[in-house]
From TrEMBL, chain A:
Subunit note: Core component of at least two putative endosomal tethering complexes, the homotypic fusion and vacuole protein sorting (HOPS) complex and the class C core vacuole/endosome tethering (CORVET) complex. Their common core is composed of the class C Vps proteins VPS11, VPS16, VPS18 and VPS33A, which in HOPS further associates with VPS39 and VPS41 and in CORVET with VPS8 and TGFBRAP1. Interacts with RAB5C. Interacts with STX17, MON1B. Associates with adapter protein complex 3 (AP-3) and clathrin:AP-3 complexes.
Lineage top rank: taxon: Eukaryota
Entry membrane topology: Peripheral membrane protein
GO terms under biological process: autophagosome maturation; endosomal transport; endosome to lysosome transport; intracellular protein transport; vacuole fusion, non-autophagic
This protein's encoding gene: VPS16
Subcellular location as annotated: Late endosome membrane; Lysosome membrane
Native organism taxonomy: Eukaryota, Metazoa, Chordata, Craniata, Vertebrata
Primary site of residence: membrane
Family in the record: Belongs to the VPS16 family.
Stretches assigned to the Vps16 C-terminal domain: 517-794
Domain Vps16 N-terminal residue range list: 4-420
The entry's keywords: Coiled coil, Endosome, Lysosome, Membrane, Protein transport, Transport
The name this protein goes by in its record: Vacuolar protein sorting-associated protein 16 homolog
Amino acid sequence: MDCYTANWNPLGDSAFYRKYELYSMDWDLKEELRDCLVAAAPYGGPIALLRNPWRKEKAASVRPVLEIYSASGLPLASLLWKSGPVVSLGWSAEEELLCVQEDGVVLVYGLHGDFRRHFSMGNEVLQNRVLDARIFHTEFGSGVAILTGAHRFTLSANVGDLKLRRMPEVPGLQSAPSCWTALCQDRVAHILLAVGPDLYLLDHAACSAVTPPGLAPGVSSFLQMAVSFTYRHLALFTDTGYIWMGTASLKEKLCEFNCNIRAPPKQMVWCSRPRSKERAVVVAWERRLMVVGDAPESIQFVLDEDSYLVPELDGVRIFSRSTHEFLHEVPVASEEIFKIASMAPGALLLEAQKEYEKESQKADEYLREIQELGQLTQAVQQCIEAAGHEHRPDMQKSLLRAASFGKCFLDRFPPDSFVRMCQDLRVLNAIRDYHIGIPLTYSQYKQLTIQVLLDRLVLRRLYPLAIQICEYLRLPEVQGVSRILAHWACYKVQQKDVSDEDVARAINQKLGDTPGVSYSDIAARAYGCGRTELAIKLLEYEPRSGEQVPLLLKMKRSKLALSKAIESGDTDLVFTVLLHLKNELNRGDFFMTLRNQPMALSLYRQFCKHQELETLKDLYNQDDNHQELGSFHVRASYAAEERIEGRVAALQTAADAFYKAKNEFAAKATEDQMRLLRLQRRLEDELGGRFVDLSLHDTVTTLVLGGHSKRAEQLARDFRIPDKRLWWLKLTALADLEDWEELEKFSKSKKSPIGYLPFVEICMKQHNKYEAKKYASRVGPEQKVKALLLVGCVS
Amino acid sequence: MAFPHRPDAPELPDFSMLKRLARDQLIYLLEQLPGKKDLFIEADLMSPLDRIANVSILKQHEVDKLYKVENKPALSSNEQLCFLVRPRIKNMRYVASLVNADKLAGRTRKYKVIFSPQKFHACEMVLEEEGVFGDVSCDEWAFSLLPLDVDLLSMELPEFFRDYFLEGDQRWINTVAQALHLLSTLYGPFPNCYGIGRCSKMSYELWRKLEEEEDGETKGRRPEIGHIFLLDRDVDFVTALCSQVVYEGLVDDTFRIKCGSVDFGPEVTSSDRSLKVLLNAEDKVFSEIRNEHFSNVFGFLSQKARNLQAQYDRRRGMDIKQMKNFVSQELKGLKQEHRLLSVHIGACESIMKKKTKQDFQELIKTEHALLEGFNIRESTSYIEEHIDRQVSPIESLRLMCLLSITENGLIPKDYRSLKTQYLQSYGPEHLLTFSNLRRAGLLTEQAPGDTLTAVESKVSKLVTDKAAGKITDAFSSLAKKSNFRALSKKLNLIPRVDGEYDLKVPRDMAYVFSGAYVPLSCRLIEQELTRRDSLAAATFPSSAGQSLRLEPPARASQVLERRSWQGLDEVVRLLNCGELAFTDMTKEDKASSESLRLILVVFLGGCTFSEISALRFLGREKGYRFIFLTTAVTNSARLMEAMSEVKA
């Protein structure tokens, strides 16, 4: 333990920097890093190497290889590069690899070397070729900035939602800038570039010359510039070996340093953390690494091998052929506890716990000392916090043990910070494992959030680990386990070597009916991979039939879709499928399909009734539904046709249909109607007035009322109007006419089939008591009383 | 005379929340189209809308002018047009023609169509076909439940009946399910569900699906309403076809109650203006007579008038102070009552004039004969005469249907002759009406040699066949047999009359039909409730009896499991519906005994005021409270009109 601070290097008075090994790499690189295009994603992300770049004029016949490794050097993908020359590589925030080609086309690959998509940076870029490119991260996502052969810049702030912006021209720019970078301020992306002794800031509207405040004189060119992880700070390296550090807005200078090395550095990156005491820049040359800050002295390391720096939120990762290290400023809590001769409460508590384990009474002394100062709570908090910043599990444990020991002497110490730290460290240690290879620090982990971390695990296809983490942290199923299972299932369906049955069964076994898992989404993915049969099998597991339909339609399983839609009970869905089917199938097949689905059929019929009458007719025809066909024509006879001839023709068709339907009654009735129509027409011609469209009864009544008794009789005979009806009819009509004489004659024409009470009633209705009395006497005995009452002869 | 409820009858839930909900949603939709706009309202939606939001509320939300959707070009000059319509294709064509006319005139306006209660894909399709889909924005106003009264919710969808029971169109079922879902979110889950009929079953299943998709929220809630009964209208056509003689039903039959209010014409108001009267529990006079047999109403009203007079008379002999009190406090109430009284007396007179004539007595007599099943020949000739005299096309049709259903179809000779007579009287287009009625099973022909058992075996075979589609097929091909006679015997629908039935002090629900017939739909509900109550009494004996006879637990649980409409097996078979009885949805123990006496009855395809009165009577007798949810309030005339084909 004495040597715990051995790797601590002081910078100035206040800060220490330490460098420790994350992994020893065994990635068995065949070439030097310097011969490759290198891109490493932040937050312990993967490393991409593209060997054999084109700028080395090597044998063009050899195709370069694009390799992707985890941060621990495990190979994730390797593929032969078959496209054009690549200028720059970079990782997007979603851990997709962006490869900027010379012609301005950006190819996007997944973590496992699977090609995702490509996009172009525009015609101007295509014409002038790409000279240099940077991939940068903004609040919106990942951006690409390109310097073209014409020394113009084009950028897109978010490749997910590609909007190209061509930056204004820099006046008098003849050659490529000596260095440049993309800046992101106030949610807008800028370009900062250095041309000779001048600095220019390009925004989308203008190009303005800027000067950093307090820049030492004598600078004739800037060799390197670096923007901090959060875009807040800027460092400039000049040809005089002078380093200027200040805010990215170029309003304030933080410090400066003269390293007296005039050779251009290979890389320069910021090494700071949120709320850092010291702001330092790490500069790397071929064999030398220098940490420079606001101090007269710098920290120097020797680089044994070709190395590459990856800026992180709270430090710098440095990897080479054999190792992967992390360089950062020692966090406050750790510093307080471990600084030599520290009397900080945390340090005392750690000491006390060690003594306690040795069963020494010194433990009590230390503890007393802390308690006297009333700093025990602080001590526990310090230990918990420091544990988070430790990389080695044994150190984490001893600090946590100290915290737990201290906690015992506190009355009311809320346990959640301790518990949460234990959980977080467990997760962190799991993912830092060599096989997983995501060396996140505690601060990075907190910044990234557990959800994103889970996404990244899913992206690496580490489903079991992700699920274990979810279960361990007791995340709600919908966000946690179900989501991961769904991703797993989507991956599973892409395994072409496994049979459809096996995949479907495996997925169903794992997923069961976990809430929040949509089988239709998985099926859609299966269909996307060209596995229609599998997709159908998966859809079988989807409990909501409504969800199955859209995909089934897409897969052209319309008939299946139809029955599923019907099952769902959602008529709108059924209708959607119907319209689909209508366009997809020929008419005959469409009708046949409908025929087997009565619910859909009636739905479609309803629609046709209002919108497509002809189709309705075809439908009935197809079904040989002569009854409905007949009804259809009857309706047409009075709704669609104006002329009598047309109407009669429609009725004739209807009658034929009714005969076919063996509905003799309807057929006869229709034929009667045809006869009646013709007759009414003739009556209109001969007698004038309106007859057409009257019912038979009304036609006869009209005739009687018009005094055409003969005609009326004739009609009644022709249409075989029953006697009773005729009597009622004549009775009413004659009474209306008040033709009492005729009525009497009529009543005597023969014995009334309706009795004589109606005669009495109708006369009384017309208030003709005199006539009524005539008939009252003829009323049959059982109704006589009634009749007499009506007439008013109570006696 | 108005019966008080038993003291243990539960309180009704407050349904005014539904109105507020609908109003807020409508306002939200109107605000989606900021600025002045003209509102085009479909005629069918006007009255319901009036119950939700009056003109001043609409004006507050920048509705400028109101128009009725009708087949005329719109004269609106507003830049924004809003259409409030039912999802019907003809409305879409109207909107499209308006938009297209504007386009021709080179005019651009904003159009918004609000569908109530929901939009259908077919409507959007039509807009698309007419080429205006892009110009119109569509929205839904999920207003499906209108509280017409404290215990009556209506969906105001009269077309439900024709669409489902005639055309086999199931699109409204989703709307029903949505409405039930809304009720269960607002008033807690329903512990017990029962249903008869295919439509009930489908609605129930869709509703369950909705509940499952949106799990969580209602689970912990205590149920407010203990039972829900779903009934298809085709289970009991008979009740709906009978002439109504309870006051409210009679008013509906005579004047047509529309959306809870009625227009009394000059013959009632005895002035030259007609008067619109809201009929609900707030009308003190009406609420006392609505459920009464008509023969009692007049006596009651005259008694009431005398009381009123007595109250007026009190002012004589008052001193100044008392008089002041009287004027400021009581007079207004008395005046109000006076006004209502005169309206109802006017209505009564008008009804009496129409109904107490000879023919009405004859009509009722015939109806009763049909229900009881005697003198069929006589009834048939009465109907024939009815047709021959062209009394009324709807009435004639109604009697024919009643004859057909009670007699399990007409004998072929009558079937032909009645139809022929009808066509001669009322016009040949009714050939289509008959075809509709046959399809709906309302007017059928006894197949020669088709004995009851043969039909039954046929039906039961179809019922066991799980393929739902087949049943629909059967539905249209094999017209449903009603077995009314057997049902009536089994369920004792025709009360035995010993002496005169005292309509003033009714004994059972039959009073709504002058003591001649207990409505089948209501009897089914009564049977189930009685069965449940006796079961509950057996399973949970009163504390006194507990020590004496402890049921063995095994048996108790066995009893509890039997929760469907069992014991009605025979009835179910006769009803030919196949589908009924759903198991309980949630455990009953959460439901308070209070809520178990609150019962929601859902009529799919409409219910009549007589049925409502009958169940209200049952509630008063047994200490239940019934809540009614119907797709629309209906009566025999509305049913017949829905089936009729009339020349356009």
